[in-house]
Specification:
The structure holds 2 protein chains of 2 kinds.
Chain A (H helix, E strand, L loop, with lengths): L1 H35 L6 H24 L13 H33 L6 H26 L6 H16 L5 H19 L4 H24 L1
Chain B lengths: L1 H4 L8 H12 L3 E2 H8 L3 H13 L3 E8 L2 E8 L1 H19 L2
Antiparallel strand pairs in B: 1-3, 2-3
Classes of the chains: A mainly alpha, B alpha+beta.
């Protein structure tokens, strides 16, 4: 009788401990993840950024067709008014995408009760900003030297590098998105004249596809 | 039974598991950051870090930033080894059943 009781006791004890070990392991991995990857990035911000980019690309296409060129071929580039319009549209699209991205991400982090401003997010932003600033200066130099045809693909290349760089500190998906942008940007460098098309595919379509996937996966 | 004995008593509490996990994947982490990650009180965190420091698993650095002290933590080499074998023991324990 005593023997039987202690058998049940051990069986119960072992099932109980087993659950505790499993929870311990889950806790360890959750804490590693939470402290080293920012998980409140919102998929919705990707979708919005994509839509904004497609609108911007549509406007750019319309203006350029008025000028009789598919993309800013260096030779066709006589009117500096068009350049100003395009640069302003690009910057406005960037500002709108950033604003919505920050808005949706803040909303998600509040829901998940995750901190938004700590060592991790600072590292994330810094690793994102460095290639972007370099890319911005690079593009300004390209325009000053008159190589307009490379500007749109160059923005994709540097944006892709920024995402690959920042992917270490957030969802792995961002790294793959970055590789996608990088490939499109590099392809755009070779197929000059289709720059706008690659730009729309990278900033528009790829963002929408990735945003939707991430929204479904992590929501 | 051998496996259970290979679990490290110093890592028994959830707070310590969390603390060590954070330090496994980060370099220096400061007090405020750790507190918000683990969602615990000042006193609770302080008592666990002191114990882990005594065991030689973490390194504590105190420095002045202006007039305030800033405390930061880093895992030591022996802490990394000990925690890795603790995690390994846990994983073997659940695989054996």
């Amino acid at each position: 009788m005593l023997l039987q009781n202690s058998f049940y006791y051990f069986a119960f004890q072992s099932a109980f401990m087993d659950k505790k070990y499993q929870e311990d392991i889950a806790h360890i991995y959750a804490m590693m993840e939470r402290s080293s990857r920012f998980i409140s990035l919102s998929g919705l911000s990707g979708i919005v950024a994509g839509v904004v980019a497609l609108i911007a690309a549509g406007l750019a296409y319309y203006w350029m067709r008025e000028q009789g060129s598919l993309y800013l071929d260096d030779r066709h580039f006589g009117d500096s008014g068009l350049l100003v319009k395009l640069v302003i549209t690009g910057l406005a699209a960037l500002a709108a995408a950033l604003f919505c991205g920050i808005f949706f991400t803040l909303r998600k982090s509040r829901k998940q009760q995750q901190p938004v401003w700590n060592a991790l997010t600072r590292r994330l932003l810094l690793s994102l900003a460095l290639p972007l600033v370099a890319g911005g200066l690079f593009c300004i130099a390209l325009m000053m030297q008159g190589h307009f045809v490379f500007v749109a693909p160059a923005t994709l290349v540097f944006y892709g590098l920024a995402l690959v760089n920042a992917g270490k500190y957030t969802f792995r998906d961002i790294e793959f998105l970055g590789i996608g942008e990088l490939v499109l940007g590099l392809a755009g460098m070779f197929f000059t004249g289709y720059g706008l098309l690659f730009w729309a595919a990278g900033f528009g379509l790829l963002h929408i596809v990735y945003g939707t996937l991430m929204h479904l996966k992590y929501h | 039974m051998d496996l259970i004995q290979s679990l490290n008593k110093d890592f028994e509490s959830r707070v310590r598991l969390g603390l060590m996990s954070v330090l496994m994947v980060n370099d220096w982490v400061d007090f405020k950051e750790m507190k918000s990650l683990l969602k615990i009180t000042d006193g609770n965190l302080a008592s666990h870090t002191t114990a882990l420091e005594k065991a030689g698993y973490i390194e504590v650095k105190k420095e002045f930033v202006g007039k305030k002290t800033r405390t930061t933590y880093r895992i030591t080499h022996s802490g990394r080894t000990a925690f890795a074998s603790h995690l390994q023991a846990l994983e073997q324990l659940i695989q054996n059943t």
